[in-house]
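Record 1 of the preview.
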Amino acid sequence: MSSRRTILESLRSDSSVSILIIGGGINGAGVFRDLVLQGVDVLLVDKSDFSSGTSAATSHMAHGGLRYLENGDFSLVREAIHERNLLIANAPHYVHPLPTTIPIFKWHSGLLNALLKFLGLINKTVERGAILIKIGLSIYDLLVSSNLTVPRHSFMSKSDSLARFPLLNPSMICTATYYDASILAPERVCIELICDALEMGDHARAVNYVSAVGAFDDIVRLRDELTGETYTVKPKLVVNAAGPWIDQVNKSLKRHTSFVGGSKGSHIVIDNQQIRNAIGDHEIFFENDDGRIVLICPIANKVLVGTTELVCDDPDQVCCTPEEVDYFIAMIMKMFPQANVSKDQIIFSFSG
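->
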């Protein structure tokens, strides 16, 4: 495995490369590994740390696609389940089944709305009741049944739910639990993909803190962000895997595009042992007052709370705002009204 300096200096003597991948998040890392395993010579660059952007700012979940059932997108749900199960099987040291509990407050709500949404007649969402959730989870189990990597769903009565989760809002009528997957360290999954590729030989090269800053003809100009030095490469193909920075990278390569809209999601991590003990190893997954699906889940011995979705046109300026913090605190208090929660318990926040 070559050093960073060796890789950069090699570009002086031979600038040709079959594939240049710009962006070392999970997409760039996955493409990098796949191509390297096929024997292709590939150069992967990232303007910062690998997996330091959107790939790090996640809800730490491998989502099985449950929410896509409402739109009737069964193929997408199957794909999400398949990919989640592969992660559980291939990276058990980072990814493991996550019991996900849904507190339910109504019996019949949302049935007609769900039918009309499934038929594509409306796009409005109303609170989902127990019957609708039961139907959805039963269909989900059928899609999961071909590969029982995780258990089937179950329902608990109000009394059993409060016995299991004593701090839950007593206004709920029951709870449902299904299984998704938790990713303890999504950054490490990405890094291991890159390291795995680098072990394949010198045809795999990866270097961070290197930006794509220009292009002319079939030449791409790179800049070392640590020294300011510039290098040129002559790739046969460029893969832009820069995530929310895709359009910015394309602009630097003289390709003006508008592929990515501006939005962000924020999370906070709180040190509250009362709530941490109350949820145990379960994620609490529910519909907030504004209709957003939100979560409260364990992360090591702390509690992860998310997420928002707000307009943000500049990915370099994303941050968790005071208004989002207020939203999270109110959200926690809705689900755990007896808990003692305050802003000074927040030990970390992130956005992506």
